[in-house]
Amino acid sequence: MAMAAATNFCASSSISSTQKTAAALPSLQGQTCSLPSRHRHLLSAGRRPAGLSVAATAAPTAIQQVDGATSSGKASKALPFRVGHGFDLHRLEPGYPLIIGGINIPHERGCEAHSDGDVLLHCVVDAILGALSLPDIGQIFPDNDPKWKGAASSVFIKEAVRLMHEAGYEIGNLDATLILQRPKLSPFKEAIRANLCELLGADPAAVNLKAKTHEKVDSLGENRSIAAHTVVLLMKK
């Protein structure tokens, strides 16, 4: 009998708690759901990056239909800033040029890649595309497309900058780190940074470049590869 009373008490308490919670919640009738504003720029055909296939854009089209049916019709508020991260790595092989930030660096090895293998510019492009919530560089400029065979990476970064401006943003600041054992980049850092600033249309005070060795560890430390990381802050114009 005591157990039955306890069971009844727990059930009553649970129902009472549920009723109180339900009473405290606002009614959801008549309310609609809309997509996060960070995805809306992908829905406009005018903002679709060049090189994307129909299959790659089929999902956003479907989302647009759902959004059109459920959104309240109010314009989404643009984010005041966006942050993106980029990473790239290439093998170093004899017989290839070593191009970093658009600057040809004298070295016995260079980047084996479909394009010119500029690890820094590829990394910066991915950081900008990431900040804009767009597909990565490999999707927009696929490495199995003969059109990009041996292409200068400045082409890729100019397209990323175009998309950035089209979305209404500009460079707030950019911080990049190159990782390679050899050669030493100290004599070339300012030339690399100056060219990067020119390609981005950014104030030199907003662009930072660092170079690190990998302490002779793994492929990076054995002069068999080169890598780069980039973090970028985009500010609304």
Automatic annotation (TrEMBL):
InterPro entries: MECDP_synthase, MECDP_synthase_CS, MECDP_synthase_sf. It comes from the Eukaryota. Its EC number is 4.6.1.12. Pathway: Isoprenoid biosynthesis; isopentenyl diphosphate biosynthesis via DXP pathway; isopentenyl diphosphate from 1-deoxy-D-xylulose 5-phosphate: step 4/6. One of its GO terms (molecular function) is 2-C-methyl-D-erythritol 2,4-cyclodiphosphate synthase activity. CDD domains: MECDP_synthase (cd00554). Pfam families: YgbB. Its cofactor is a divalent metal cation. One of its GO terms (cellular component) is chloroplast. Its main location: plastid. Residues 81-234 form the 2-C-methyl-D-erythritol 2,4-cyclodiphosphate synthase domain. Homotrimer. Belongs to the IspF family. PANTHER family: 2-C-METHYL-D-ERYTHRITOL 2,4-CYCLODIPHOSPHATE SYNTHASE, CHLOROPLASTIC. This is 2-C-methyl-D-erythritol 2,4-cyclodiphosphate synthase.
